[in-house]
Amino acid sequence: MPATIVETNSKKLKRKDIDPITLDIIENAMMNARYEMDAVVFRTAMSPGIREQNDMFPMIANLEGKMVVGQFGSFIHGFKEAYDGSIEEGDLFLTTDPYACNGAISHINDWLLLRPIFKDGRLIAYAAMFGHMTDVGGKVPGSLPTDAREIFEEGIRVPPLKIFKKDELQTDVLELILHNSRMPTWNRSDFNALVAAMRTAEKRVIEMAERFGDDEYYSALDELLARNKRAMAKLIKDTVPEKKQHFEDYICDDGLGMGPYRIKCAMWRDKGKVIFDFEGTDPQSISSINFYLNEEMFKMFCGVYMIMVFDPQIMFNDGFYDLMEVHIPNGTLLKPREPAALSCRTHALGRIFDVLGGLLGQGDPDFLAGAGFSDSPHFMYSGYDKNGEWYQLYSIGFGGIPGKPSGDGPDGHSLWPSFTNVPNEFLESYFPLRIESYETITDSGGAGYNRGGNGLRMGYCFLEPGTISIHDDRWLTYPWGVNGGLPGRRSEKILKRADGSTEMMPSKCDRIVVSAGDILYFNTWGGGGCGDPFKRETERVEFDVRAGLVSVEGARRYGVVMNADMSVDEKKTKTLRARMAKQRGKVKMFDRGGDIAELKKRCKKETGLDAPRQPEFQAWALKYLEEQPKAKGRGKKVARG
């Protein structure tokens, strides 16, 4: 049963016409309030994940729960549908359980807080925010076990509840939750920061309503949503073909030695709507790489991608959601059944963007970008220092953004545009670490007319004994290139022991014991190239070589021959390019570096790691997927061994 909203003022808000000037003022005031929420968190949170890397997502929504300004799209609809209780003035809600809020959040490290905003006894808006807590209990520090089989192993689950009632904190509930964390001080501070940010948003919303009028404020938000819908309707009509497009990509492994796992999607336009169908996606994993993908969240992913690629001037909000229809079969990697483990869902979450890029680019190849840094790889380090104090680091790695028709991909960037790195000085000041290297990896970006961004190499030298966890992907499959562009280099993790020995580390592992003097080289992958590398202007290649982004040998991937003084030998380059173009033959739309069978065959030689085994799926999941009814217009089911 959906939530019940309790209002003491029964007078309904009325729709009014809003002049363009007022609309523009309210739009910018809303955006400023959203960024003020960020500023409040930055000044009051404690964990480096939230304070330094901005792993939190603010939002202000209208009274129906549709996001008007924010970053991650509205999760209020899923929350309200799952919460069987009342929503009253003075309430502030908390949940950490994806299964209890229809996937409004996707793993239990994310604490979702929701504040209904009342004015004169009427609900006029919502403020919401979620942030990644460093630790919420569970079997490993960081609460992201790669080998979890059920969500119960990942930490404390908090169902939707009122953490504030009538503006009074339910202290006993909060203390119970914090009691299950290895980092209660950080979590308390981050919780208070999120609450303060939402109170700031509430204050700004009420100020706007008082200045312009309740009906005017309500109508302005409605118009901002409607404007987005009109713009997106045209974008869908112009860029999404009626003919079905198909694309698939993979999660390389599950942390248990099995993989890869397929994410498959079809896309087409029908009567002004864009349809997405994930039929053919692999069944849910027995490990923790499952991603409980809320359909509304996927619409947000798609909307953000389309706006950024096709028309960045469109203001992003939830107005377009009814222009999209999404089908995700239950029991799959993207819609697992409770109590499947979810803690390592970041790989599937990121890979969705590569799938979207492959689908939308087929409809309009002029906008096709390569595969990018479709992940948020995690590095965790914890233990007791020389004074017996517990330390615990959670950090997100960055990599190469894909080459795109409009230019090169940035080097060493985040999947999420607002994320920033944890400063090395911060790491060295607060943790027993020394950063040995922090640099882009030469030649890791895929060659193309527009180059894929290079990945990053971070060298962590451990100064105290402890344990580390690594969460990453793209070590087996390549970040594919497009329209003649070459794939980017894959990721790798190398642990150099103090005794001189070296170990190739798997991409997903926990409980790795390290000693003082050991160094972990955390190398992320590069972005795929876009366009014919033999047509890239030689002066651009020369610049990359001089900047250390491309090596002298790597320049030959562009058919460019360098002289000893780092200038281009134009005559030899012309000859080499002609020969390489002839040998290459027809330009590929997608260059994956080989199919899965080929990649597995070459795996040990190329990566130093054993190829993953074929995934083992639970018998009930296979049977369940076979028994699901097929919707009209969807293709034949695809079996997987």
Give a written overview of the molecule.
The protein contains 13 helices and 24 strands. It is an alpha+beta fold and 641 residues long. The strands form six sheets. It has a seven-stranded antiparallel β-sheet with strand order 3-2-7-6-5-8-9. The chain has a five-stranded antiparallel β-sheet with strand order 16-17-23-20-21, with helices on one face. A hairpin with a 2-residue loop joins strand 6 and strand 7. Helix 1 runs antiparallel to helix 5 (184-212) and helix 7 crosses helix 8 (346-363). The model is unreliable at 631-641 (pLDDT under 50).
Q: Any chance you could write out the topology, listing elements then pairs?
A:
Layout: E1 4-5, H1 20-44, H2 48-51, E2 56-61, E3 67-70, H3 76-82, E4 86-87, E5 92-95, E6 110-119, E7 122-132, E8 161-165, E9 168-169, H4 171-178, H5 184-212, H6 214-239, E10 245-251, E11 261-270, E12 273-277, H7 295-310, E13 324-327, H8 346-363, E14 378-384, E15 390-396, H9 424-430, E16 433-440, E17 456-462, E18 466-471, E19 481-482, E20 492-496, E21 502-505, E22 508-514, E23 519-523, H10 538-546, H11 570-584, E24 590-591, H12 596-607, H13 619-627
Regions with pLDDT < 50 over 5+ consecutive residues? 631-641
Please give the number of β-strands.
24
Give the averaged pLDDT, no decimals. 94
Order the strands across the largest sheet as they lie in space. 3-2-7-6-5-8-9
| Biggest pleated-sheet summary | 7 strands, antiparallel
Shape: globular
Strand content: 15-25%
Number of helices: 13
The oligomeric status of these chains comes to single chain
Radius of gyration: 25 Å
Question: Helix share of residues?
Answer: 25-40%
Structural class: alpha+beta
The first-to-last residue Cα distance is 39 Å
